[in-house]
């Protein structure tokens, strides 16, 4: 549905406003105990995919140790952003053609959402998760002496 696709476009745009201030030299910056800048970005893209596939297709991959190992691999800033954009693009394409009925279906029982939750609620979870990482990435910028672009700017 177009409105839901637009919501995901805005979510990605708000994140891109933060990401545009990073340079490749910041890809490996990390706060002690945290992922690098590029790993944070890659994680966001993979969680977009995870919520989409879980909510709409019932594919809740709960092997978090494997996912942690995957995210912890070295990655360039460009590759992380490319993966993020690909996952958003695929979700947006899906939402462009999804019917109201599909979005309003109740999810199959799963380990994340309570019984009776409609599938479109996963989109709110995506925006909440992305907002959390926009905050982290804004702090990463400030720790590098860079004032982040206002996330909600056009």
Write a structural description.
- 62% of the residues lie in helices and 0% in strands.
- The longest helix is centred in the C-terminal third of the chain and has 23 residues, at 121-143.
- By secondary structure, the protein is mainly α.
- The protein has helices spanning 2-19, 37-57, 64-71, 77-97, 100-104, 121-143.
- The protein has a single domain, classed as dinb family like domain (Four Helix Bundle (Hemerythrin (Met), subunit A)), CATH 1.20.120.
- The model has no long low-confidence stretch (mean pLDDT 97).
- Helix 1 (2-19) packs parallel to helix 6, helix 2 (37-57) runs parallel beside helix 4 (77-97) and helix 2 (37-57) runs antiparallel to helix 6 (121-143).
- It has six helices and no strands.
């Amino acid at each position: 549905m177009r409105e839901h696709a637009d919501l995901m476009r805005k979510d990605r745009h708000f994140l891109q406003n933060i990401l545009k201030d990073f340079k490749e030299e910041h890809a490996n910056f990390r706060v002690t105990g945290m992922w690098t800048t590029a790993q944070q970005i890659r994680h966001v893209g993979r969680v977009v995919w995870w919520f989409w596939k879980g909510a709409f297709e019932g594919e809740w991959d709960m092997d978090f140790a494997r996912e942690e190992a995957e995210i912890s691999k070295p990655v360039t800033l460009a590759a992380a952003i490319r993966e993020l954009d690909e996952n958003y693009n695929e979700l947006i394409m899906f939402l462009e053609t999804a019917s109201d009925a599909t979005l309003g279906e109740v999810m199959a029982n799963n380990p994340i959402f309570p019984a009776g939750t409609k599938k479109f609620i996963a989109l709110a979870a995506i925006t909440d998760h992305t907002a959390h990482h926009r905050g982290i990435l804004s702090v990463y910028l400030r720790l590098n002496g860079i004032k982040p672009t206002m996330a909600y700017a056009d």
